[in-house]
Fold this protein.
Amino acid sequence: MFYFIGLGLGDAKDITVKGLEIIKKAERIYLEAYTSILTVGKVELEQFYGRDLIVADRQLVEQDADSILDGSDVKDVAILIVGDPFGATTHTDLFARAAERGIKCKVIHNASILSAAGCCGLQLYNFGETVSIVMWEDGWYPESFYDKIVGNKTRGLHTLCLLDIKMKEQSVENMMKGNKIYEPPRFLKCKDAITQLLTISEKRKDTVLNPDTFCIGLARIGWDSQKIVAGTMSLLQNFDLGPPIHSLVIPGKMHFLEEELVKQFAVNTDVST
Amino acid sequence: MFYFIGLGLGDAKDITVKGLEIIKKAERIYLEAYTSILTVGKVELEQFYGRDLIVADRQLVEQDADSILDGSDVKDVAILIVGDPFGATTHTDLFARAAERGIKCKVIHNASILSAAGCCGLQLYNFGETVSIVMWEDGWYPESFYDKIVGNKTRGLHTLCLLDIKMKEQSVENMMKGNKIYEPPRFLKCKDAITQLLTISEKRKDTVLNPDTFCIGLARIGWDSQKIVAGTMSLLQNFDLGPPIHSLVIPGKMHFLEEELVKQFAVNTDVST
């Protein structure tokens, strides 16, 4: 059996009892290490599980899925994925390849930012399409996420914006030379995502998103250091939520009960500047 | 501290290690028992945790939240909720009341159908607004869910439809007489939800949803008996997915990789009739 095991959002103890039991007895255990992060690293996880882990980077998962799956028709092999196994798109390739090879799969679900985001006080039923905001760089300034947010907002729906993560990326130079040297991880912060959004709205002379638009910044959801702040874009643009991972919620039409709940996260001018 | 602890979707072992540790040491533990179900009941959970649980029905949570929160300013009190604590709307009242009283809260997130639904092969990023389909009865035939599905579909987005659950409901007669006698639990099945949708489209002479519309029925996601079937509405209208809980996914525009993954769940005519 091949197991996809979600690790949840926080630390080693966010694994489910069921997931932990499978890890204890599996033949081989991979740790997916490029679509999200936990508060703890490989070594701490290994200590907690009492098992060795094989790091599965993007290259291994996307280009050598077969070696990960090998033997799982007769023995138990598992891959550990931060959040829920189906929160990120990359693992579906592995799932498809397993199906092709007739390997039985089982998914051990866990918390995902897609549902945990409800802790900001907005009802999950009132969210529209989830949006990924990519980090602008090197002359690459995509805007498609902006249209999706505006689309949700004009229909009264909230938007959860997942912010870009760059894990184990190569510089163009190293990639050309075939050097396996990787850049340090980088993460798009809430404040910088807001700056990108306001740059687009200004350029387009659009008013749906503007400096007075109310939004909610989420940082490290499910961690002990979790932080949620709510305020106008111009306030949050100057508010540093600290270490990653950040997400940004842009409310559509809020119900008064949602407003009541969100209020507790409001920043005032003194705090935010 | 007041803890909201998600139990995930399947059985007792779907709790996280962190959640279990809190249960072991909490002063008082409530079990929310009316917005969803696990494969196991109160007694099995009590045996697994080694702790007594207090059942929190709708009346207790909605009308006597203060008694649940009492003492949590000085001791640890927890409420256990199937799925993720923020998957259902009812617990936000408790959260708001705790905030009002200045009681510190901590959320232990877990799997929710909102993210676990990704196991049907569709990308979670391509879902629009989530929809609740209510059970038609007693001359009450709401249609608002239909418009939301059509809204998503015309924008190319998938829709996750959560199907109605009636737990611990009173008959009108018993309610009038003040008898605390409850009807057996009832659940809207995929096939019946499809019948309701096709009844609306026929009445409206609408073609966005029709007997040939492709959809995916999900039953008991996260349970050992999980079942996923994909096919036209007319096929799935005659396909019984068995015991609850069911959900229905209505795809918008599918990417070819999504089509590949969904294909494995396809029913053929022989199986479905």
